[in-house]
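Before the break, one more example. Copy the sequence into your notebook; we will annotate it together after we see the structure.
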Amino acid sequence: MLTMTINQEAVAELVELVATAVVAKLQADCTALTRPGREVLTEKLLLPTDEAAAACSISARLLWDLTAPRGPIHSVRAGSRVLYPISELRRWIEAETKSSVAASTK
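Here is what the structure looks like once it is written out:
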């Protein structure tokens, strides 16, 4: 006959890990924006000027100065609106971080 010993601490740790993973998944599912008949959106792809500036912790005026053709950040026009792709903002932040790190090591 085979006997098995159950380590209560190990079981408790495993239950806690599984519960944490389930809660994280549920939170992600709940924060996703759903629209009937459309795919699930988890984040915006384009931000208006005020939101883009706030996301970068800069003023809307500075963002305007940094927008192409005056600066390195590319935007998208939709009618009269100027929108900023999140990928472009991330690219600019990464480039600025690399250039400031390089300048500080010289």
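The mean pLDDT is 82. Strands lie at 46-48, 76-78, 81-85. Try to locate both features in your own notes.
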